[in-house]
Design brief:
Number of strands: 13
Strand content: 15-25%
Number of helices: 19
Shape: elongated
Distance between the termini: 30 Å
Largest sheet: 10 strands, mixed
Helix content: 25-40%
Structural class: alpha+beta
Length: 522
């Protein structure tokens, strides 16, 4: 029986719950008794679930039936409708069906033996990672079975609640999905440049970086040092969100993956400045950035055609170089653990250098950026000093200097993403070699990271305390507010502005009395 939300009254309850294994006397006992109904409505969501699953100690109902569905709060769910851009309204069921249309895959399983539709399972897997940051199929199955009453009630095509999903079923479904189609969903929804507060003053700083799934391995190789997936991500450092990513099986293919990815970006790159590590400061990367009309700010070392320029800078006296610089920033001080880091940025016009006998990687270089760090360990007189050199094609002017300082201070935001994915979301623990499974798990994690980042910012704006809201706080919040997590996920996945369905995408969620519901929180 599919869940088809309609406006119900107590007379139609028996017919509605037929097939959901809910004894009619349960509903009549609760909804026809004012005291019981008021007490039920006053309970928290988790307590309602425990009540209706006949948890030990429940004073409302004890019955021999072991399988019955979660009784929805009619005012919050069944009567909710999405208001479309064209003024029409659709039910929650219809709105979720649009999401499932996006996630639809060609299911090759035997239809007579299939209990769980693939697109619904994928939606639940994303929700599970949002709430628990879980990684393994067994953890996803536990979440699925623990919340099956709620999921059965609100997600189309879900089987009745007496069914338990297995970890093997989830694994097989994750292998069924076409990894390229699933990745295109991420690209259609999230490959956008968020509005920057100072968009009229600064460029968007985009950092591209790669990292491995440490527990993965490559099929056919005996050495576990050869990883099965290497992810190259493009992160908007200003808004701290991923705009695109690619998966390769070798670390040396990072720069090729980047060049492939920027060709697919659906926005203009003229207002972007790209940064990366020294490994990717290569001629074809710089030429590709310039070809798209963008800017670059890249570190150089003794590799990829930068040896001569690096040696020229490294062999000169640093103080003499700094004297030639036309810009010197103030100290950027940060305290981390038991140390204090003082950073300073200097910008040198490349015309100040004698390059007559020096080979440079590109003729578009306009300035050299000197990034000097002094690290003071608390309680010690010893000071560690480190100097890095960057090249850029930004024009030489005062506005450029401000842009360089801003980009240099935000370039490490990609490391925050890696930390959240690898630890909180356990991405490094994905022990697999199947390319489809690895790619689809990574795609789910990317989607979750984007949605949870938005939630974290929302919680941060509502925070009245002085402590910072962490990603773990956001995951814990979702765990306690499953309905709000689902609402936020739906509104993100329905935000596909590249398809022909734009006129039918739900934008505002209200109930029939035009009062705000939980779905308006995100």
């Amino acid at each position: 029986m599919l869940f088809n939300p309609t406006i119900l009254d107590t007379k139609s309850i028996d017919n509605f719950w037929d097939g959901f294994f809910v004894p009619s006397k349960t509903l009549k006992t609760i909804y026809n008794t004012p005291k019981l109904k008021d007490k039920y409505d006053s309970l928290a969501f988790d307590d309602q679930v425990k009540l209706l699953f006949n948890v030990e100690g429940s004073e409302f109902y004890k019955d021999e039936h072991k399988t019955f569905s979660f009784l929805l709060s009619f005012d919050k769910y069944i009567n909710c409708t999405f208001e479309l851009e064209n003024g029409e309204h659709v039910s929650l069921y219809d709105a979720l069906s649009l999401i499932n249309y996006d996630l639809y895959i060609e299911d090759t399983r035997d239809p007579y033996k299939t209990l769980y539709p693939a697109h619904s399972v994928i939606l639940v897997c994303i929700l599970a990672v949002m709430c628990e940051g879980t990684s393994t199929c067994s953890s996803l199955a536990k979440f699925f079975n623990r919340h099956k009453a709620f999921l059965c009630a609100v997600i189309p095509d879900m089987p009745n609640v007496d069914r338990n999903i297995s970890a093997d079923t989830i694994y097989s479904i994750l292998n069924l999905i076409d990894k390229d189609k699933f990745r295109s969903l991420f690209r259609d929804v999230f490959s956008i440049l968020y509005s920057e507060k100072d968009a009229d003053k600064y460029l968007n700083t985009i950092v591209f970086d790669g990292h491995e799934v440490r527990a993965s391995y490559k099929k056919g190789f005996t050495s576990r040092k050869i990883k099965g997936a290497h992810i190259i991500s493009l992160i908007n450092a200003d808004d701290k969100h991923v705009i695109a990513y690619e998966i390769k099986d070798q670390k040396t293919n990072e720069h090729k993956a980047f060049l492939e990815t920027i060709k697919l970006l659906p926005f203009n790159l003229h207002d972007c400045i790209f940064m990366a590590d020294a490994l990717n400061t290569q001629k074809d990367v710089i030429d590709g950035i310039v070809e798209h009309g963008a800017f670059y700010l890249m570190p150089i070392k003794k590799n990829a055609g930068n040896r001569e320029l690096y040696n020229l800078l490294d062999t000169q006296n640093l103080d003499d170089l700094i004297k030639k610089c036309h810009f010197k920033s103030d100290d950027i001080v940060s305290k981390v653990g038991g140390r204090v880091d003082a950073k300073k940025i200097f910008v040198l016009d490349i015309k100040e250098l004698d390059l007559s006998n020096t080979k440079i990687i590109s003729d578009t270089i306009t300035s050299i950026v000197i990034y000097k760090t002094e690290r003071h360990l608390l309680g010690q007189e010893k000071c560690e000093t480190n100097t890095m050199f960057f090249i850029t094609n930004l024009p030489v002017c005062d506005k450029t200097n401000e842009q360089i300082v801003k980009s240099m201070t935000q370039r490490w935001s990609c490391e925050q993403m890696h930390h959240v994915l690898d630890t909180t979301m356990e991405q490094d623990s994905i022990n697999a070699c199947n390319k489809s499974y690895l790619s689809n798990k990574i795609n789910i994690n990317k989607i979750v990271y984007e949605v949870v980042t938005q939630q974290r910012e929302k919680l941060e704006s509502q925070n009245t305390k002085f402590r910072k809201i962490t990603y773990q706080n956001a995951f814990d919040y979702n765990k306690d507010h499953l309905d709000e997590a689902l609402a936020c996920l739906i509104k993100n996945l329905a935000n596909d502005k590249t398809t022909e369905r734009k006129s039918t995408i739900p934008m505002i969620l209200k109930d029939k009395d035009d009062t705000l519901t939980i779905f308006d929180l995100f």
